[in-house]
Amino acid sequence: MFPRIxxxxxxxxxxWPACERRxxxxxxxxxxxxxxxxxxxxxxxxRRLFExxxxxxxxxxxxxxxxxxxxxxxxxxxxxxxxxxxLRRSLVLAHILRANGYPVTVYMGWxxxxxxxxxxxxxxxxxxxxxxxxxxxxxxxxxxH
Length: 145
Fold this sequence. Notes:
By secondary structure, the protein is an alpha+beta fold. It is built from 5 helices and 3 strands. Strands 2-1-3 form a 3-stranded antiparallel sheet, covered by helices on one side. A hairpin with a 5-residue loop joins strand 1 (about 105-110) and strand 2. Helix 2 crosses helix 4 and helix 4 (about 65-80) crosses helix 5. The longest helix has 24 residues, at about 20-40. The termini are far apart. The relative contact order is 0.14.
């Protein structure tokens, strides 16, 4: 059921900075919780809960936003799968980035695909001027905020 973790992989994981290990641990726990919260409470209440649990305190060692995205995507593959789970990933990623002092916004949008059907997507972007480039993930989507 769980993948075997050899000494080599464990030693590579332990070589990660502490902030990245914490982010992976949080993502592994928070992604399934986000799935359940969205189903039971809906988007607005779930988003409020994820935003309200962030403590406003400065971090001495902040995680890189691109690396945080990679970690959340990695955790999502093993916990909730890749199939249209962008909203869950975005909520968890936004929480991790806020906890590390980055101002971030979660966006939702839609577009028509090649079959002329609507498809939705969610992504998060750092607020402009936060020191990191804007993601190109939301290009082509009409943003709903």
